[in-house]
Amino acid sequence: MKKIKAGVIGTGFIGPAHIEGLRRLGFVDVVALADINEEVAKQKAELLSIEKYYGDYKDLLNDKDIQVVHICTPNYLHYKIAKEALLAGKHVICEKPLAMSSSEGEELVRIAKEKGLVNAVHFNLRFYPLMHHLKKMIEKGELGKIFAINGSYQQDWLLYETDFNWRLLPEFSGESRAVADIGSHWLDLIEFVTELKVVEVYADFATFYPVRKKPLNPIETYAGKLMSAEDYEDVKITTEDYATVILKFNNGAHGSMTVNQVAAGRKNRLYFEIYGSKKGVSWNSERPNELWIGRRDGSNEILMKDPSLLDAYAREITSYPGGHNEGFPDTIKQMFKKVYTYILEEKYLRGEKPDFPTFEDGYREMLICEAIVKSAKNGCWVMVND
């Protein structure tokens, strides 16, 4: 069987997750990785059993064996590397956000189209089987007219003032943190399952720790906490720990989203409720194999992930039978399966529509995020420019 060769740039928390997902496909070889310098790249390559490694990502882009590049670096490098990868003729899968500004994102969309290259943004949470099933429920009108959507994405990994990560610094992550980092997942997922568009936003931001303790030595995301007072320096924080955003949708529905990275006890909980004129639904990413379905004139139910109970569209991304839970790593595998099958079968050469989030989706989320940031600054409703 023909195999596609991939290279991964950036090997912090998410890079190895990409590598694991790719290896589970069976028809992709991860042949190289790149990191901040040759020493780090060599250590990661040995740890992950990858033959080739580069201390400069440009060398990976010049590797003629590599067909697809995964960008898993800090945010400020996404635009630069994605642009160079496209110009080098590589298909690109990029972590979110796609870039640091919508103008950069728009340029990447244009270049990808001009080059005719496959492009994707890693909004993997779409690929829980129940999310694909819910999308079809809504398409078929099972919920009726959607009236209201509300929910949250909450974590506690930045609960203490001694918790620190490059994402806290706007020069590395961008002007927004919580909204851009986890809110973008919530917004993308809601627009995916409902096929509605956010058209106007009103936002309230809070930074609970205006000063945090930065470690004198870097630590990876989720890798651990500081233990000694001598190990840090004070750093001013301007990005948001928390945000609540009131939303208006293009069908007249109203809603709200709260994101919080200092929510004690919430490890990584995306939650939403969607209420229509016939039924309501709710879903919690920490219990991803259960979908609550609510009725006024009948019993409520919990739909368990089971291929025999799901729409055919959802069965395509379901690997295991009922009672065998599928979680976060499986969403990565299923998204990459869609992308790499699209490449392998050369669907992009025939102009077939991708069934995965592309640079256009990444650009869309940047437009929403910029509107949210503007609203928080000015204290007013802001339209989403599209």
Automatic annotation (TrEMBL):
Per the UniProt record, the source organism is Caldicellulosiruptor saccharolyticus (strain ATCC 43494 / DSM 8903 / Tp8T 6331)
Q: Which SUPFAM superfamilies match?
A: Glyceraldehyde-3-phosphate dehydrogenase-like, C-terminal domain, NAD(P)-binding Rossmann-fold domains
> What's the domain of life for this entry?
Bacteria
Annotated GO molecular function terms are:
nucleotide binding; oxidoreductase activity
Q: Which InterPro entries match?
A: Gfo/Idh/MocA-like_OxRdtase_N (IPR000683), Gfo/Idh/MocA_oxidrdct_glycsds (IPR050463), GFO_IDH_MocA-like_dom (IPR055170), NAD(P)-bd_dom_sf (IPR036291)
How is this protein named in the record?
Oxidoreductase domain containing protein
Residues in Gfo/Idh/MocA-like oxidoreductase N-terminal domain copies: 4-121
Keyword set includes Oxidoreductase: yes
Keywords noted in UniProt: Oxidoreductase
Q: Which Pfam families match?
A: GFO_IDH_MocA, GFO_IDH_MocA_C3
Q: Where is the GFO/IDH/MocA-like oxidoreductase domain?
A: 132-279
